[in-house]
Design goal:
Strand order of the largest sheet: 4-5-6-7
Structural class: alpha+beta
Distance between the termini: 36 Å
Helix content: 25-40%
Number of domains: 1
Number of strands: 8
CATH class: Alpha Beta
Number of helices: 8
CATH topology: Nuclear Transport Factor 2, Chain: A
Strand content: 15-25%
Order of helices and strands: HEHHEEHHHHEEEEEH
Length: 278
């Protein structure tokens, strides 16, 4: 299955029909770009762009083929209790490999923290740079799996057709005056299975993907997914061995005005990401 096929099968945002976005003052296109041609052209751009994070995950999928320390709940007891996101109580994660936090606690909370941080790395713009991609994959995947992935991942992420569809050149760079945005923002995690040396963790997240800047025909959009990671304990840390992704849960979008190209670019450049721990 090609990357395009994977995208079409996933549906991207197209099937939600719920998110409403107001354009900037003056009624112009988002980012003031040269988007023309009415609904048909917009729909075509939507098919190409809005599910791009699916393509990021699909690129990896392409390669893949071949103790509770939270405060006690307060209030009435007729509702299910939920645990707040908080440090696990184990030693903090201080090690870093390839810019990615490593050295997680050997428990369920450590597995959740690992899955969340690995999601951020695997969904980042760094995956479009060969050197950084190798560094990320070697860090988050189990050694026996990583070795088998690199060649196929290089092929997937260097495909000129794929890069052209998302507005990048053959080297994975954005056009002059535009900023390439690819971010995953975890919202929550859940362990669905675990043993002494393995864990299955679901990560629910929102993602931002597109090109910010004047004349961008692929403006930054958001989407929602849940990825299930299979992790195993290797060399005193949690590592990925496999994953599956699905759409949603998708919240109803508010009627908010889309930011200008300048505001979006500044936000991307000025607001850094986080290290996640549970």
């Amino acid at each position: 299955m090609s990357l395009g096929d994977e995208h079409q099968a996933s549906g991207g945002y197209g099937g939600t029909g719920q998110t409403r976005t107001r354009l900037p003052e003056g009624g112009g296109d988002v980012y003031g770009g040269a988007r023309r041609g009415g609904r048909t052209s917009s729909s075509r751009s939507l098919v190409t762009v809005v599910g791009v994070v699916v393509l990021l995950i699909a690129a990896i999928a392409f390669a893949n083929r071949g103790g509770d320390d939270s405060p006690e709940a307060t209030g009435t007891t007729d509702k299910p209790e939920t645990s707040a996101t908080a440090p696990s109580g184990e030693r903090p994660v201080k090690a870093v490999a390839g810019g990615i936090p490593t050295g997680y606690a050997h428990d369920e909370q450590g597995a959740q923290s690992a899955a969340a941080n690995y999601s951020v790395a695997l969904g980042s713009a760094d995956m479009f740079d060969k050197a950084r991609r190798h560094e990320i994959v070697s860090t988050v995947y189990a050694p026996d799996v990583a070795a088998a992935r690199l060649t196929d991942l290089d092929k997937a992420y260097s495909s000129e057709g794929f890069l052209t569809n998302i507005g990048l050149d053959k080297n994975g760079r954005a056009p002059a005056g535009q900023t390439f945005v690819s971010r995953v923002v975890p919202v929550g995690t859940k362990v669905t299975a675990s043993s002494a040396d393995s864990a299955t963790v679901e990560v629910w997240y929102t993602s931002l993907f597109g090109l910010s800047g004047e004349n961008s025909t692929n403006p930054v959009t958001e989407s929602w997914y849940t990825t299930t990671y299979q992790l195993k304990w290797v060399d005193n840390d949690w590592k990925v061995t496999d994953f599956q992704q699905k759409d949603g849960p998708v919240p109803v979008g508010r009627d908010q005005r889309a930011s200008t190209a300048d505001d979006m670019t500044k936000a991307v450049e000025e607001y850094g990401g986080f290290t996640y721990a549970r």
